[in-house]
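TA notes. Do not distribute before section.
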Amino acid sequence: MNVVQVDTPGGSYPIHIGPGRLDALDQCIPADATAIAVVTNPTVAALYGERAEAALARTGKRVLRIELPDGEAHKDWQSLNLIFDALLAQRLDRRCVLVALGGGVIGDMTGFAAAVYMRGVRFLQVPTTLLAQVDSSVGGKTAVNHPLGKNMIGAFYQPIAVEIDTDVLGTLPAREVSAGLAEVIKYGLILDPAFWTWCEENAQKLRALDPDAIAHAIRRSCELKAQVVGKDERESGLRAILNLGHTFGHAIESGLGYGAWLHGEAVGCGMVQAAELSADVTGFDRGDVARVRALVAAIGCPAVAPDLGADRWLELMQVDKKTEGGSIRYVLMTRIGAAVMQPAPDDAVRAVLARTTQ
């Protein structure tokens, strides 16, 4: 087992990474907990619900299950209220613990519910997709989507631990693996050029879920994210660079309808677009743009974006948490391993859209 420590003003907690962590969930529940609510969806519940609940039952606490509809399209207020309905109906108090058993949608909604139920209860992240393991489960971002924008309503709220069971990746569809790898390569692109090169050299091993390669990728991704989150928990500066590709990616998700593309697929394609924009605005090397495009394709993500129409693209990107005073601020690269936040002229963005969409 590998352990990565996250230290933020909002809380310090461990990330445990290794096989069989689902069977050790009881070790993460505080002794004073009065009840445990496992929030999941039918797909994950069928695979891992009983196993997780059996481990949690060893605490001697009451364990209940809350199943939410599956998919990004259901990351909304209606699904969030299903959590509150169950917690209130079962009379769970402020010493209960919520357990997010699922991918990024479940993790985000469970964390948001924990942040506001009785003004804050504890929760545990148990991510079951690669994307959630390397990104959304770490750092305390919680949210639901709004029809006008993705993740626009939420809170920064840290879990008490993150339990990453690498065994669960074997049941993921290939698209989900590729989507998770988009977030993995992102860390190298903005923070660690040596890790980026390693990802280029090991892309096929990562897609095949080679145990050693995937364990290293998860650990290094978590280490890099923990470093950034520890310096900037509430995304007032440095942490925003973790959104590389997300301004374009969120526009793809919103424009096509949530769920048409997986989040990681949209981010992977968005990184290609961000690299193109970086070449025009910051002087990012054109050869490195080609490397970004090649690696995004190698991990199995789309490298060409849908043609939403330039005006629609810009409209969707305006509804972004990085927009300030009506000006869209993009995460751009100056070189592999270094990123900055800055506006870009609409003309430059339109030029990028013209050559990256079809």
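Switch to the second chain here.
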Amino acid sequence: MGFVAGEVVAPGDPRIVLEGQWGYQPGLAITVNSGSRISFTFNGTAAQALFDVGGLETPPHLWVSVDEAEPELHVVDQPVIELTAEKAGPHKVEIVVKDVNEHVNRWNPPFGCAVVFAGLVLDSGTRLRLSGRPSGPRLEFYGDSITQGVRALSAHLESEGVDGSKSYAYLTARALGASAYQVGFGSQGIIKAGNGEVPPGTESFGWNFAGSPAERVEQPDVVVLNLGVNDETLSAAQYGGYLSLVRAQYEAAEIVALSPFNGKHASEIEAAVKAVTAAGDPKIRYVGTDGWITEADCTDAVHPSVDGHAKIAAHLTEELSKLLPSRK
């Protein structure tokens, strides 16, 4: 018997868990960030995940897994992804954004590339279950192409080489049992605009995309910053201004400022952190990453490979464990 449409479930339904930086429009949830996730559990044998692909120049890439099976790649150029199981549920579905292409507009609607989730259609005999919300620590990562996972798989310039689920940010969050906002924009710096019409870090922070403020129900425990390598010049004062923006948004969070993995602007970043801590903010700390990886751990001498990201994640997990009460 073929699929017989039953209940239609909106993306904002509490039975669907969205993790990462998502903005909302009527009937839609939108992310422009690799590493964002959709998860839910259904009883039955079939469901359909719906996506609005109208107007997209370049389709996003998703990993889709049912019942923790090996993820399957879906290039989202059609509005429906079929989700099936041989036997009646319960079945857990996890959809991870592998990549939102950095080379077309992903900031100013209408987008050239974005994941525009329009909800679910359940088979007439299928029911959606209420899933538990993530209960671990809350982390946020802000970075550039490395945080995005660009060229992690290979030196390929487009989405074929990119995987947000192999990024150090994604791996660190999983290792710590944390929910995470993974915000990485290729070519972006503190004061330099990124690819895809993305503004500089000082202007994009606090926004999902243009016109969509990033709203948080709960404050993060730790915010990790990994920007600066794309800035041709960067002063301690400019980085300090970015720290002030983050602190104004998150008054109680631990803020971790990483030096770029190739060491660029490390002294300016460290000086900025020392200045703000001397001014009375002890919950901002500098973490030098010298020696975490070498060029041999990269696919193009700059972007970490899968193994390179794993090495970074191991170091960062150790650092963040010191800041999370449950890990002390």
